[in-house]
Write a sequence for this structure.
């Protein structure tokens, strides 16, 4: 429902047959030379955090040499063209993802929730973790865009959560507060409408914006005057609802005043593409578009949920993602899993290329972005959380040098990296999650 | 609304004065039979020092379990399910264990009668499935809600558990835009933009219908928002690329032929039609004579290039809102003059608001809605005014949340009955996943619903109403994992997946509609098949796409354990998973959570290459050589292994990878197993455990919160009553509706 740009000439008839959906469909609508960041020195980097479940074959992920000029490992090879933008970060751990004696073994259930929070997800139906890294950044640097952040997934939510833990731990990696998971959206069409809204022309869009504003305005009055004898916990929820109403009102006002930029909105995608790579590319395209149009600067994406049984025929591996991750330390099985790891990395290469080829200010979007990619699990066969597969891409507006394999001392909390990255992103904090200090990055 | 405040909910049956000191008993020489039972069979592991499973029973008094009800309920659960004592340990006769357990339960129930605790549910928000049904019942409009609202989290296996139905800015955002889109669709607003919907046949997400008397094709139900012109694109190919053939396809609208077009893999029929607004049924039928033999159940014969995909886009241009079910539902009056407009708007909006808010609309409610009506009216006329009022209604907290008030002047911890209107909503969301209808609402407004006779009569009426299919879709769909059938990883085509899902839905539905014994879910001597499914199961002489009831001749296929839905969702991509099957049965049919694997599970010492075990059973046995794994896997695996005659897609097999299937094993209680029939018999021998588990699941779903130890006495009493009614479905539903947790709340601390 947010319209940021004028001159939106959206053709009436949307895409035809779903099967004919070709990618990247958004290219046509990006005027190649339109730099949307108007000032040369735009200090606000885009931040994208991508989660992959089940860990990786670390022996085939971690480059042998440290520092600059390292040789790309088998899994990371597809990223070699982006060496100068890349930092492989080794020997990080997420101790908070482990179970305690009382409720051991819930590693899959906890890993995604810990990844960006560094907080142990508590047991019980009601979720409790901690505000995540992306939201810490969005709270400071995402408030002047129509959407503070965008949360995306490839898989729909599922019923299998287990181990007496809230399903939200597995359904999202983004938490606005300790108890507010941000739901992830997997339908590109819905994402598209969130970015560009509906309405056939400027006048209609403006009218709908006004209507939405008055509705939200009157909701505040209605909530205030609800003279109900409600339990204290219900009143707390109602207060949260009121906060959300105000937040949406703020976003609409932002959308109304956002700067025009000669952007032509493309046809909306139709539904969810059948193939994983088509689906993922579309989600990448939408994020790049949202960055470029400054609709948002922060996004999170889950390639799959923990314990996902999805099969990736395009990777050449015909067994399910989760069962392949349980490779039993058999060389042949480990090769198979590494092949899936590499397949995921090859998809990431598409994103980096897209960012790199999108002009932005005095450079390109990759110069002005920070992409964090990794898993909350190390060895999928053991469910351990040390050392984690993690890499960074993008220049973060000149804040981070690339081309390095960074190795820290063993068992370094990943929260230390998150804390240090917040520094680089201009949101310094003293502590984050279970951090014990800052890292040189 | 008058409230019934109940402070001492039920008569106190047991004098609390009779309770003796607890810890001392264990030490006295005159140990009770219960103490002796514990000493002999339990405390070797479950003592204060070892605390196996976090349980110490040596210091607790079995004569007075109420004071440690949470602990004792755990023990009762394990004993009832036959999980304790573990295999290998000395085990008394089942009658002895049952006697001990019954005594414990009786004491726990007595305690609960004296100390009632109906619990409290958090503030409920409409979830996505409920939202869709509410819109249908309120506005006679079917919407694809998956495009409007994000998916909900779930807990305890259900997506209507109030604790996890949180609000977030992005959800709020979606509510606001959903309200705008739905209200415009409902009144047929002229500004509705073009939208595209794609329908597919054959594999995947196609509609389960085939045009009658044709060679194949697909049937599409589509809602056209306005009278006007729409674009259609029909493509063929049956999924086979590089096929240059072209087929003739007849297009029908509500059965009337309107056009013949040609389609193929490379030929898309692209045409426009003038459509009237509202839901219409379109047929795209292959009318070529195909020289190849045709399998009648394929939506498109495998060797043909019939229609496989239909995309409908529009409206491209419109001539007006038309006469749709939604407009007939909304516009109960039509102003003939300007002076009639406001009274008519008032009538329309107050009627809708009463249903939407599940209570008579107050003056304040109406004032807000009429304000929005006026804005729209002034901008673009009466219909837009109504649209604007509906839009506002659909984001009201009164619509989105199900508030339940606390009576003033009650102390924290006091128990009170929810008021009649709140009860009406509880009932309709339980049975229909939707708002009360006028009959239920009227009784609640009159304060009559709390009357047990009326409540029972309404419950039975609602169960018999077609809207109770919500229990099939939302309760059984989640409890029995039917929602997972569509995406389960094992390789099955979409048509068979739909058949699996439909079969179990229809079995559950037959138990609901015919008020049958719920054990039929495990043991029915009938099932529902179409040709495709019958072929899969090896049932002869079933032709055509429609589902019909058939008697089961093959013992193996009786009940859920022989059904494709269950067998598919418990398999992985390339093999069966006895662990998953065993775990699933433990959790969903026996109510015993399988233990989670220990952290940092050690790798299996599997040797690579030629010595690798081959059958699934051999792999499992390999796994169990590890003692840490074995302790739990010996509980789960035998259950799953007894089902090994069913392959990963539920087809019968006698061998796995060339190794003859061995479906033998032993349950933890010593029961010998050999094949599915023996497992079913074992489950039926603990039918009370199955019915208790089902009641627990229904209760969780019905009240929208986790079931706790203090709910167990209520559940036992529901099951006890149900057994006297042959476990009829309605007896369990009525038991829940009449229970404390369903009708009462505990006043929260810190409440106003």
């Amino acid at each position: 429902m947010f319209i940021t740009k004028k001159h939106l000439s959206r053709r009436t008839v949307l895409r035809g047959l779903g099967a004919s959906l070709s990618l990247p469909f958004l290219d046509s609508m990006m005027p190649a030379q339109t730099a949307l960041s108007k000032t040369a020195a735009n200090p606000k980097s885009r931040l994208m955090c991508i989660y992959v479940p089940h860990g990786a074959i670390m022996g085939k992920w971690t480059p042998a040499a440290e520092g600059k000029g390292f040789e790309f490992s088998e899994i990371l090879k597809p990223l070699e063209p982006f060496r100068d933008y890349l930092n492989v970060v080794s020997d990080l751990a997420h101790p908070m993802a482990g179970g305690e004696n009382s409720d051991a073994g819930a590693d899959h259930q906890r890993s995604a929730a810990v990844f960006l929070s560094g907080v142990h997800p508590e047991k019980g139906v009601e979720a409790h973790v901690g505000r995540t890294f992306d939201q810490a950044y969005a709270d400071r640097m995402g408030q002047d865009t129509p959407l503070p952040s965008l949360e995306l997934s490839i898989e729909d939510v599922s019923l299998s959560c287990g181990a007496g833990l809230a399903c939200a731990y597995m359904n999202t990696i983004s938490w606005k507060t300790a108890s507010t998971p941000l739901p992830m959206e997997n339908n590109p069409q819905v994402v598209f409408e969130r970015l560009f809204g509906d309405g056939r022309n400027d006048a209609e869009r403006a009218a709908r914006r006004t209507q939405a504003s008055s509705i939200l305005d009157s909701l505040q009055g209605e909530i205030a005057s609800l003279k109900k004898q409600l339990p204290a916990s219900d009143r707390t929820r109602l207060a949260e609802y009121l906060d959300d109403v105000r937040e949406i009102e703020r976003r609409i006002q932002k959308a109304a005043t956002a700067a025009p930029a000669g952007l032509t909105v493309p046809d909306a995608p139709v539904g969810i593409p059948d193939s994983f790579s088509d689906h993922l590319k579309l989600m990448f395209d939408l994020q790049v578009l949202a960055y470029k149009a400054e609709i948002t600067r922060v996004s999170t994406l889950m390639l799959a949920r923990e314990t996902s049984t999805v099969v990736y025929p395009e990777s050449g591996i015909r067994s399910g993602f989760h069962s392949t991750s349980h490779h039993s330390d058999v060389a042949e099985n480990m090769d198979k899993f590494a092949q899936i790891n590499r397949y995921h990395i090859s998809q990431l290469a598409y994103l980096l290329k897209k960012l790199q080829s999108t002009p932005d200010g005095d450079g390109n979007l990759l110069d002005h972005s920070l992409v964090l990619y990794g898993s909350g699990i190390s060895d999928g066969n053991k469910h351990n959380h040390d050392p984690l597969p993690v890499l960074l891409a993008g220049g973060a507006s000149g804040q981070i040098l690339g081309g390095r394999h960074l190795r820290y001392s063993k068992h370094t909390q990943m929260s230390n990296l998150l804390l240090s990255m917040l520094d680089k992103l201009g949101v310094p904090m003293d502590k984050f999650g279970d951090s014990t200090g800052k890292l040189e990055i | 609304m008058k409230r019934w405040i109940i402070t001492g909910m039920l008569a106190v049956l047991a004098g609390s004065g009779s309770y003796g000191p607890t810890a001392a008993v264990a030490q006295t020489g005159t140990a009770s039979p219960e103490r002796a039972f514990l000493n002999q069979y339990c405390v070797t592991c479950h003592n204060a020092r070892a605390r196996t499973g976090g349980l110490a029973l040596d210091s607790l008094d079995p004569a007075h379990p109420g004071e440690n009800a949470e602990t004792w309920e755990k023990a009762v659960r394990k004993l009832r399910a036959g999980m304790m004592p573990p295999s290998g340990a000395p085990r008394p006769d089942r009658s002895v264990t049952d006697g001990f357990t019954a005594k414990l339960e009786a004491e726990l129930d007595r305690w609960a009668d004296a100390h009632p605790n109906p619990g409290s549910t958090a503030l409920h928000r409409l979830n996505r499935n409920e939202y869709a049904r509410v819109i249908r019942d309120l506005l006679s409009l079917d919407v694809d809600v998956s495009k409007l609202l994000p998916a909900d989290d779930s807990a305890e296996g259900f997506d209507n558990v109030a604790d996890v139905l949180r609000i977030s800015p992005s959800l709020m955002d979606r509510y606001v835009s959903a309200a705008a889109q739905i209200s415009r669709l409902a009144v047929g607003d002229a500004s509705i933009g073009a939208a595209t919907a794609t329908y597919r046949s054959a594999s995947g997400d196609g509609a389960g219908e085939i045009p009658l008397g044709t060679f194949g094709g697909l049937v599409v139900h589509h809602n056209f928002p306005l009278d006007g012109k729409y674009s259609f694109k029909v493509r063929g190919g049956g999924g086979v690329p590089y096929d240059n053939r072209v087929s003739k396809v007849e297009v029908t609208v509500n059965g009337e032929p309107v056009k013949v077009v040609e389609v193929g893999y490379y030929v898309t029929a692209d045409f426009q039609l003038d459509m009237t607004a509202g839901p219409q049924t379109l047929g795209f039928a292959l009318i070529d004579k195909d020289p190849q033999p045709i399998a009648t159940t394929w939506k498109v014969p495998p060797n043909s290039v019939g229609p496989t995909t239909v995309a409908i886009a529009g409206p491209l241009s419109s001539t007006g809102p038309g006469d749709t079910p939604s407009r007939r539902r909304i516009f109960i009056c039509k102003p003939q003059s300007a002076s009639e407009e406001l009274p008519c708007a008032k009538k329309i909006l107050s009627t809708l608001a009463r249903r939407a808010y599940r209570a008579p609309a107050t003056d304040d409610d109406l004032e807000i809605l009429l304000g929005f009506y006026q804005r729209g009216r002034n901008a673009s006329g009466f219909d837009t005014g109504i649209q604007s009022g509906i839009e506002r209604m659909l984001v009201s907290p009164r619509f989105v949340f199900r508030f339940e008030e606390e009576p003033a002047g009650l102390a924290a911890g006091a128990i009170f009955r929810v008021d009649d209107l709140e009860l009406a909503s509880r009932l309709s969301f339980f049975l229909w996943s939707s708002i009360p209808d006028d009959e239920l609402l009227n009784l609640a407004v009159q304060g009559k619903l709390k009357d047990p006779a009326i409540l029972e009569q309404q419950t039975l009426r609602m169960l018999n109403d077609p809207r109770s299919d919500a229990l099939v879709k939302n309760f059984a769909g989640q409890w029995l994992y039917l929602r997972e059938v569509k995406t389960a990883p094992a390789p099955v085509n979409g048509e068979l997946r739909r058949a699996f899902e439909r079969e179990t839905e229809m079995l559950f539905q037959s138990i609901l509609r015919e008020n049958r014994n719920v054990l039929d879910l495990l043991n029915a001597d009938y099932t529902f098949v179409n040709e495709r499914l019958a072929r899969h199961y090896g049932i002869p002489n079933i032709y055509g796409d429609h589902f019909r009831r058939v008697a089961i001749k093959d013992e193996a296929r009786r009940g859920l354990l022989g059904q494709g839905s269950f067998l598919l969702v418990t398999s992985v991509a390339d093999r069966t998973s006895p662990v998953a099957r065993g775990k699933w049965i433990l959790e969903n049919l026996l109510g015993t959570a399988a233990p989670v694997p220990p952290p940092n599970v050690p790798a299996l010492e599997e040797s690579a290459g030629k010595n690798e075990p081959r059958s699934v059973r051999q792999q499992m046995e390999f796994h169990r050589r590890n003692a840490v794994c074995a302790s739990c896997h010996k509980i789960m695996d035998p259950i799953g292994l007894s089902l090994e005659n069913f392959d990963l897609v539920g087809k019968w097999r006698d061998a796995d990878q060339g190794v003859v299937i061995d479906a033998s094993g032993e349950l933890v209680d010593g029961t010998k197993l050999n094949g599915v029939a023996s497992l079913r018999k074992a489950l039926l021998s603990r039918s009370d455990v199955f019915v208790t588990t089902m009641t627990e699941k229904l209760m969780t779903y019905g009240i929208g919160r986790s079931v706790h130890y203090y709910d167990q006495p209520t559940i036992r009493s529901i099951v006890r009553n149900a057994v006297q009614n042959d476990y009829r479905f309605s007896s369990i539903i009525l038991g829940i509706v009449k229970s404390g947790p369903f009708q009462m709340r505990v006043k929260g601390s810190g409440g106003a």
